[in-house]
Give the backbone structure.
Amino acid sequence: MNKRGRLVVVLLVAVLAVVFLVPTITWYGFIPQETKDLALSSVARISDYAGERGKADLDELLGLVDKNENALLPAEYAYLKDSVKSWYADAGKAVPSPWTVVDVFRTQPNADAMQALLEAHYRNEILEVRDSSRRVIKLGHDLVGGTSVSLKADFATLEESLGRSLSAVEKSDILRRSAEILRDRLDAFGLAEPSVNIIGADTVTAVIPGYADTDSFAGYLAGKESLSFRLLDASLSNQIVSYYNSNPDAMFDADGNLAQPDTLPAGKKVVGFYYTDNYGSQFLYAPYVVDEESALEGKYVENALTYAGTASTDAGVRFNLDATGSDIFYKLTSANTNAYYVVEFDGKIIAPPQSITTGIRGSVAVPGFPASTANELVRALSTDAFPVALEVTGVHAVGPSLGLKGVTTGIAAAVGGLLLALALMFVVYNVTGLAANASLLFNALVFLAVLSSLGITFTVAGLVAAAIILLVCLDAHVVLFERIKEEKAVGKTDQAAIRSGYAKSMTNIVEIHLVLLLVAIVLSQIGSIALEGFAIILAIGLVSSLFSVLYVTRLILDATVTERKSAKLHISWRRN
């Protein structure tokens, strides 16, 4: 590739790297910690926050109207203009200019509508921060600390369902399998390299980076064991709606759950159908009466896949059943044609009731899910069911496993090592060493950008991988520069020495990168989650290192020399 082509490639990679790195820079440099904690918490907590801020802003706006309705709209509420403009258009009125505080209420005097608009603004702000967190370099709990969650295994309920007592060996095996499933489930949800351990005879602890509350973590515990298909009782469902309409105070119990009326027949229960909006908040759409006994349990679902719905915002989920589940569901549906069934997940109905027209075997296609709900459900069902129920018993913050002093010392050592390497290249190779330094920094830029775009977790193992990458990149430059020095020593021009040096050192440089890349691939397949993270980071760094040596360093060297005999390539402190 000629100089111009090499320059275009390097500039393109540099621009993309900066673009990919911006979310990480913004996340760690410009977003307050409390905002990040809120963004990573449960949707319910975000909704509560938006509601509180929306109500406070509404009260302030109404206060400004009472004080002086002709006062100009404060700058912090300028975002209201775009939404309120549509209200003016619907009312056929001219848009005011300039805006006063009363203008935002003229076409929509309903305070609830204004509060909903204010809440949506704050909710969207936090959800945008949450979305950006998927494109940043995450720091492992061994570097920044995080949240420790204690979960207790409910062996008593399991023994009751089995009708016998479990031995200590059986309990130990069940707890071990539960810990493995929890680790897989947290990994499936993209949590940054969680640490899961068994404590005592009935407790599992999970440590995840950053902040988490009980509600947000409880969502990770819902899987196949939380899924069931139940027959719907249409007649009783209509009666329960009438009952709640006549007795609104009796609709919910003290814990905020749908109340179970005393008049409900044995073997029946009330379950709410909850709809998830575009912001991830759930709203009760309707209560239904269903059979208390599950028609088909989630353990019979081998896997689940989404498919496109009839509307752009909807999706369907296809549940593929194993042989036993297929037979159970076929017998059930064949015996209950013209009836309805519902899909219950984690105590809530999450899709509209489905009519039964014929026996269903093999797989169950359920339409009508919001797209976000369908994706979350499929992800939750991607792991095995827990062999025993786990209940969150405690959540508390933990510091870095290395200790704050250890982390600070490690970061200082890493930065010091990099600066020492840059200085060493200049001391040994004169001005040409600066080309290697520029290449090393470019390598770091690309390396971090790729980590950011993939949302990779950076742990202590990642620091080790980064150190290896630095050494490999330095070694490649030493091999290259020594070859170029040898070519110059036999009288070749600078440009000829560079071409010959690259040609003769290429095999060694590529070989060491490919060998380590092969090692990284093997480690990613056979190791633990921590080892897999190390391997992925190492592989990314090796590719960026090779690109830097072959393109960036070559571009800089070519730009500093000509074909003339006079030496311009200062590759040592000795006179050429």
Remarks:
- The chain has a mean pLDDT of 87.
- The chain is about 55% helix and 15% strand.
- The chain has four domains: 3-28+404-560, 33-135, 146-221, 224-382.
